[in-house]
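Q: What structure does this chain adopt?
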Amino acid sequence: MTKASGRPGDRVVKVGLVGTPGAGKEAVVRAVAERFAGSLVRAGEIGGGKVARTEFVGPKELPGGGRLTVRLCAVSGQPFYNAVSELVLAGADGVVFAVSLARDRRDAARDALQALAVNAWENGLDLAVLPAALLYYRPVPAPCLAAGEMDRWLGIPTGSVARFVSGPGEVANLLAPVASVVGEIENRAVGRSHAPRTGAAKTEPTQKAKRTKTVRRKKRRRACPGVESR
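A:
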């Protein structure tokens, strides 16, 4: 969380939206933009993937009369390099992890969770305490796992992380995980207590993943890679 250049007490936060291809991540950004940011979405191609960004002001007043400006950054498609997703998480104050419930994508979901663990570790983020939410996306038509089945497949105890299920065009459900993460960030900003999630899935990268990690960046940016800032 950083100071904004507007009123005293204003803050800027970043929420990263990562996961598997076909999990509605860009749809989430566009739904948020249409609801809160006048449909303004900035997007750019980078490394074979696409990064989309929007900004909006959080609803709660912070101590000192300020507000949160939320930068929501999502990576979609299939980037050639893990570094794209790593940069989307750089400097993040919260994360939404989105995966497809399609049965033929469950291995990709597990791989994406491991990539999230690696990228969080690279960026010095502790997933046990970082405001987070899950988005399970039902593609239509496709044979899908139930949400509880995906929990078990990923090794995430049901109820340990805020979890939401959505499908194409379900705007309220697409907005919900972002609202959950922003709400937790706001609660912490106003001094409400929080504790590490109990029973959460292990997120420490494997030794193999550590050995094959991407090159560390000298400077972690809150901006979205490949997307021009204002």
